[in-house]
Write a structure and sequence with these properties.
With 698 residues, the protein is α/β, with parallel strands linked by helices. 34% of the residues lie in helices and 19% in strands. The protein has 24 helices and 29 strands. β16, α11 and β17 form a beta-alpha-beta unit.
């Protein structure tokens, strides 16, 4: 052994009680000192000299050898040199160089340690001290200059720097320490350290200062966990609420959080939102993120403990991010307690990681990125060659032929939301043409969808001169706006660029995706200019191959409705669209839909045949059939919505009114929770009845 590092770490401390176990950036000071030594390329072994059992255990966990320091060397008057010499005597066999490292410096750069050791090994110095370069003028209390002549004040650039000893580390030749009994002897050199690394912790104020600096100085380390749990206010938001004239609360969130959560769930990491708040904004945001939420909690710690047991998760591999004192309980339950940078001081002190971005400004995204950094790249499994796949029916094209056993379809990303098996059901409020050409009605329907908890609204986009058959263009029609031709009526109810620009802005304000079913190629081009996230193929367009080719060329995700289509027609459509970004919708194009024509088991047929996520587009009255579709595996549900089913127009009668839509979304979320994961277990609520009712236990 050529170089040994010794870290003296007494249990007693006059300024900060049990200082060496104080957390900075979620890591005890003694652990930070040990890690700095272990990361130095020239240090061979690290020893912690202590008289405290807790410090000893923490040091061992960090990778250090522990030497028990006797009581006579543990008092306030005992020198650091005495601890180093005792450690050398205990270990036996002196190294060439010994390094004294102090826990009171939270930010020791391993490169600075190595540079100081190199000076001794290369014979440049016998003893090296860490020091902060300074050009400060020092004065005595009586007004005398210490390091300067008050009558002569040279400019900073005309003076060589002096060095203030900062107490971080000392490197010395072991033989010299033995001979002199103290750390300074022979040729003494200084190892410069930057000011951000030179803070020494002696008082509580020093500890608060380094805790505040830790997020900006520490190198972010990957967070290797299987689950991320977040508080809501102050983590997803900036902890403020905006109240409109109707008393509705709104909060500020970061769009980047959504993509981070999406990437996290796609990688297999569970995500949960927990909140003491009962405000529906918490539920609305969780739905938009596509993650489960537990809110209105009085005791977050107990709920968290039960949830982890139900989900069979190791608490050591769970991260919880919070910002206020009611998060201290759940933070104590997990292996990775995380705090936002503006969190309560007690929360920052309890955190293993303090983020750099505040809540509402990307805190969740930062955490997601660090969790993803610890996970291996997920390889994309190669699909078997089409020729080797068993064919379900002769009419199926080889490209889309169904295998007898297919892997679970991969989710499809629509913006910041994943749609597919294992994800929350993506609920679409189909406005279609129920706006009757009135932008105010469209806005009110967007409000209906947002208030109910939908993730998206959908419209229909046509070029009437192309879509209306020639024989129908001149037909006279009675409308709420008077008598007009059918072509004039269709043009009257069609939205253009100005309306859709306002729709896009309003959907953004309400936190909804929006898109449309284009009925012709110019409408595809129009929607592309509007930068929609996804395109929908109406059932009427399944056989329009020119339209399908235009949609495939966009590279956007496609939702393909399959009403009034044969399997052969769907095969041909899939041949054009491909399956990589395809979501199918089982549908029966009868308005309104009678139960005997729903044929919901087709959801399974489509999923097995094409290997893509499958949803349900419903035209029935009531909710039962849509809810049954969810139990059969529908990954998204689309229903027409209206302000009033008695309004004029062809689709209103088969649409849901606001209360119906709200109940649909509510019941879908209940069903999602009730379906569970299929793993048989005894739930916490069963424990008491089990203990009370079971006469025989095994």
């Amino acid at each position: 052994m050529r170089v040994l590092a010794v870290v003296p770490a007494r249990g007693g401390s006059a300024g900060v009680p049990l200082k060496n176990l104080a957390l900075v950036g979620g890591v005890p000071l003694v652990t930070r000192a040990v890690r700095a030594c272990l990361r130095s390329e020239l240090i061979d072994r690290v020893v912690v000299s202590t008289d405290h059992d807790g410090i000893a255990e923490t040091a061992r966990q960090a990778g250090a050898v522990v030497v028990e320091r006797p009581a006579e060397l543990s008092g306030d008057t005992a020198s650091s040199e005495s601890a180093v010499l005792h450690a050398l005597d205990t270990l036996g066999g002196d190294p060439e160089v010994v390094v004294l490292v102090q826990c009171t410096s939270a930010f020791i750069d391993p490169a600075d340690l190595s540079a100081a050791v190199r000076k001794v090994l290369d014979g440049e110095a016998d003893s090296v001290v860490s020091g902060l370069p300074t050009h400060e003028f020092l004065w005595t209390a009586t007004g005398a200059g210490v390091n300067h002549d008050p009558a002569f004040r040279p400019r900073r650039q005309d003076r060589e720097p002096q060095f203030r000893e900062n107490g971080a580390f000392y490197v010395m030749r072991t033989s010299g320490l033995r001979a002199h009994g103290h750390r300074f002897f022979g040729r003494i050199a200084v190892q410069p350290v930057p000011s951000r690394h030179a803070i020494e912790i002696d008082e509580p104020e020093d500890l608060e200062l380094v805790r505040a600096l830790a997020p900006f100085i520490d190198e972010p380390e990957p967070i290797d966990v299987d689950c991320v749990i977040t508080d809501f206010d102050g983590v997803h938001t900036d902890d403020r609420a905006y109240v409109d004239s109707d008393g509705r609360e709104m909060v500020l969130v970061s769009r980047s959080d959504g993509m981070g959560v999406s990437l996290l769930t796609r990688s297999g990491v569970k995500v949960l939102v927990m909140s003491t708040e009962q405000n529906p904004v918490v539920t609305a945001r969780a739905r938009k993120l596509g993650v489960p939420v537990l809110q209105g909690l009085a005791d977050k710690r107990t709920v968290l403990r039960d949830w982890l047991r139900i989900e069979n998760l190791d608490p050591a591999r769970v991260a919880y991010v919070g910002n206020d004192v009611n998060d201290l309980g759940p933070m104590a339950e997990v292996g990775w307690p995380v705090a936002t940078p503006d969190a309560h001081p007690r929360v920052r002190a309890a955190a293993r990681v303090v983020l750099t971005r505040p809540g509402g400004s990307g805190a969740v995204r930062e955490l997601c990125d660090r969790v993803l950094a610890a996970r291996p790249e997920q390889p994309v499994a190669a699909r078997p060659a089409a020729a080797t796949q068993p064919v379900v029916a002769p009419a199926v094209s080889p490209v889309v032929a169904g295998a007898s056993v297919r892997p679970r379809p991969e989710p499809v990303a629509i913006g910041d939301v994943l749609v597919g098996d294992g994800q929350p059901v993506y609920v679409i409020g189909e406005i279609g043409i129920n706006h009757n050409g009135d932008l105010d009605i469209a806005r009110r329907l967007i409000d209906v969808a947002a208030d109910a908890g939908c993730q998206a609204v959908k419209f229909q986009k046509r070029t009437p001169s192309i879509c209306v058959p020639e024989e129908q263009k001149g037909q006279i029609r009675q409308t709420p706006w008077g008598e007009m031709t059918y072509l004039e009526y269709k043009e009257r109810t069609e939205f253009g660029r100005d309306e859709y620009t306002q729709i896009a802005e309003y959907c953004d304000e309400r936190g909804l995706h929006w898109f449309a079913s284009p009925w012709d190629v110019p409408s595809v081009e129009f929607l592309e200019e509007m930068n929609v996230l996804v395109h929908k193929v109406a059932s009427a367009g399944v056989a329009d191959h020119e339209l399908l080719r235009a949609l495939a060329a966009t590279g956007k995700p496609i939702i393909l409705s399959t009403g009034m289509s044969t399997l052969e027609e769907i095969d041909a459509a899939v041949e054009i669209l491909g399956t990589e970004k395809l979501i199918m919708m089982h549908a029966t194009s009868t308005y309104p839909l009678p139960p005997e024509e729903a044929n919901l088991r087709t959801i399974t047929t489509l999923k097995e045949r094409y290997g893509v996520p499958v949803g349900y587009s419903g035209h029935e009255r009531g909710l039962q059939i849509s809810l049954a579709a969810v139990t059969l595996g529908a990954v998204c549900v689309e229903r027409h919505i209206t302000l009033d089913r008695t309004m004029w127009g062809s689709d209103h009668a088969a649409s849901l009114e606001p209360a119906g839509l709200e109940h649909l979304v509510r019941d879908i979320r209940i069903i999602e929770q009730a379906l569970g994961d299929g793993v048989k277990r005894v739930f916490p609520g069963e424990e008491a009845p089990k203990a009370r009712l079971r006469r025989v236990t095994v």
